[in-house]
């Protein structure tokens, strides 16, 4: 596996998710690229980037691995992280080294299946796949479909897990104990101590987003304790 995809060996330690809400001034390719470069400068092993334009801007600044995805809201379907092969193709062309996909059991547009999606990404794009899952069952199916990594990204975001709260440490533990692919803890990591716990549980890497790059949500959290908004 490492020989086929050399960048797989680099996905360990800290991965920083550099994303921003679409209505935020931070949602600009050059701003995202600056976040990514700052993260790599401080020792992150890789970054996770959404949309082709942002991936393209980040690629111009760093040589380290980019985990690419494209969030797409398609009417009638709940899957939204790189739901179709055409989305994977676009982010691969933009410079992504690894393709992250929704690997839950939910229905996909265009009649695609997880197996056909991963197979086409491997065969036509020559890229490894990160399976974003919600349950151990989804994790097992994604590995059977050929996924190269499994991440706890969608824990608490699906009907089966909506009552749970991230981080998905129990799911991470199940993945580590039952599967032989690299396990990645993503979602809800809000402190270095939580990241360390994930690593102690056996995670090959930990993705941190909001706690590092989420200025909008962090400021909102401080506002909730009673700070007044700026009058200007």
Description:
The protein is α/β, with parallel strands linked by helices and 232 residues long. Helix content is 36%, strand content 15%. It is built from 9 helices and 8 strands. Strands 1-2-3-4-5-6-7-8 form an 8-stranded parallel barrel, surrounded by 7 helices. β5, α5 and β6 form a beta-alpha-beta unit. α1 packs across α2 and α3 runs parallel beside α4. It is globular, with a radius of gyration of 17 Å. The termini are far apart. The mean pLDDT is 93.
Give the gist of this structure.
The protein has 232 residues and is of the alpha/beta class. The protein has nine helices and eight strands. The model has no long low-confidence stretch (mean pLDDT 93).
């Amino acid at each position: 596996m490492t020989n086929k995809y050399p960048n797989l060996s680099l996905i360990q330690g800290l991965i920083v998710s550099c994303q921003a809400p679409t209505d935020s001034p931070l949602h600009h390719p050059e701003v995202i690229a600056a976040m990514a470069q700052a993260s790599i400068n401080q020792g992150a092993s890789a970054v996770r980037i959404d949309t082709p334009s942002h991936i393209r801007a980040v690629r111009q600044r760093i040589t380290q691995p980019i985990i690419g995805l494209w969030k797409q809201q398609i009417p009638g379907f709940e899957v939204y992280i790189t739901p179709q092969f055409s989305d994977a193709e676009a982010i691969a062309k933009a410079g992504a080294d690894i393709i992250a996909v929704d690997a839950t059991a939910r229905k996909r547009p265009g009649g695609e299946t997880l197996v056909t999606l991963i197979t086409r990404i491997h065969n036509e794009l020559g890229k490894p796949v990160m399976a974003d899952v919600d349950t151990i069952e989804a994790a097992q199916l994604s590995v059977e479909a050929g996924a190269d990594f499994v991440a706890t990204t969608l824990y608490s975001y699906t009907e089966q897990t909506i009552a749970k709260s991230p981080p998905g440490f129990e799911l991470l533990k199940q993945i580590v104990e039952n599967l032989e692919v690299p396990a990645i803890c993503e979602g809800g990591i809000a402190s270095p101590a939580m990241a360390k716990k994930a690593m102690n549980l056996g995670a090959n890497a930990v993705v941190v987003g909001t706690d590092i790059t989420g200025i909008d949500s962090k400021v909102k959290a401080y506002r909730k304790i009673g700070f007044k908004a700026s009058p200007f």
